[in-house]
Design brief:
It contains 11 helices and no strands. It is mostly helical. Helix 8 runs antiparallel to helix 10 (155-167). The radius of gyration is 21 Å and the shape is globular. The protein starts with 12 loop residues before the first helix and ends with a helix.
């Protein structure tokens, strides 16, 4: 990692990240490590450390934080929040960090590949639709256990789903992510 310079630090990083006021007590973090000790990601990936993320935010290191692969590892399981002695909403913090990263052009390689599932959901009402052989196998299995052969999504439900994507701005947001990736 290149050496950081004075201009790489932001004393207001915490305020910028928590612009929705979802985690107003981050400065109360005791650095006790309970979050890390109860994190399934940290158990599997020793480099992942919620305490280090909190420290980078409070220290004001935006590039190190936003460009980090670590911010994309959190599963939002909530184990950290349940065990935190000062009730820091770490999953909500991670959500805001990810949005900030994407807004600044970081992390597109983690998000854009899964856009196809969201676009598929918008078009078909399902996030995953296998090929013909897969559909036939699923239909046989579902029929054998006595349920409808294929989960049909009504045209009305698909239209409502599309409208939600469009009215909330999600469709445009996802398209902008795709464009941003192509322009990099």
């Amino acid at each position: 990692m290149p050496r950081e310079r004075d201009r790489d630090w932001n004393d207001n990083l915490y305020t910028a990240i928590d612009r929705y006021k979802l985690v107003d007590n981050l400065e109360q973090c005791l650095q006790c490590g309970k979050c890390t000790g109860n994190c399934p990601v940290a158990a599997l990936t020793p480099s992942y450390n919620p305490r280090a993320v909190v420290n980078d935010i409070l220290a004001g290191s935006p590039v190190r934080l936003l460009d980090s692969e670590e911010i994309w590892r959190c599963l939002w399981c909530g184990n950290c929040y349940r065990i935190c002695p000062v009730d820091i909403q770490y999953p909500l913090l991670m959500m805001q960090i990810r949005y900030m990263a994407l807004e600044n052009g970081y992390g597109l390689q983690y998000v854009v590949p899964i856009n196809k599932f969201a676009f598929r959901a918008m078009e078909k009402g399902l996030t995953f639709v296998p090929g013909r052989k897969g559909i036939e196998k699923i239909m046989r299995l579902r029929t054998s256990i006595g349920v409808e052969p294929w989960p049909e999504v009504s045209p009305k439900a698909i239209q409502e789903y599309r409208e939600i994507f469009e009215q909330t701005g999600v469709k445009e947001w996802m398209q902008n992510l795709e464009t941003g990736r192509r322009n990099r």
